[in-house]
Input
Amino acid sequence: MLRKLTATVLPYCAVTVLLLVAFFFLSFLRLLPCTKWIVVKLMQMVASITLPTEVYWHSLFTWPMLKSLRNAILRELQKSARIDHPAPNPSLVSTDGLSHRRLFNFCKGNRPLVVNFCSWTCPVFRARVGEFLSIVQEFSDVADFLTVYIDEAHPSNGWAFKNNVVIPNHATLEERCQAAKLMLDSVKFNCPVVVDTMENEANRAYAGLPIRQYIIKNQNVVYAGLPGPTYYNPKEVETWLKEFKAEFMRTGRHRA
Output
């Protein structure tokens, strides 16, 4: 227990200190007109899409941003999902809040299950959701897909962006379900959508916030995408599925 605690606390404290140093340095650059472009370029690299500066500028290097990043780091250090290891099997809730199912309930035989973690306040996910849905359409004959709605990436009462979807942190399961329904009212999903429990079982196990993708096969993690938004890469999932489908078509069976 002490070894596990040390393995989490020490890296967490070290990265927090580095974040504070980076915040101080970048805050100084942001104040200088001649170096503002550096901060803008860094944000474009982190976001992986081009966001209007006015959307995020006011929120940079604030306490809500620091708190959000620290929480993401802690989740990453504590997650139990690991590539080539048994997959966690958290409880999930239907978008009407009426039924609970385990993640493995969405696995069908030895078909791979692509798990997509998201929230609608993440502008990167909104910009790239079409990529994911295209992959669902192309590979639904050989794989299954599931979208899990988790905590908000940019809640209106947290690390908020301007001109963004206005959803506060979820205080109840009903609020989380309402947020997922808002997403479903905006985009037609061609795969099941569920929400994380208020204990954040799925998010804790997979460190899904703000966006992330995994592939599970035979109850093992066979693909683990790196944390979004920077490393949210549906193309990697597409490549994995193309290779899987090619082998399936060649051999006539799912690979072990």
Notes: The chain is about 45% helix and 15% strand.
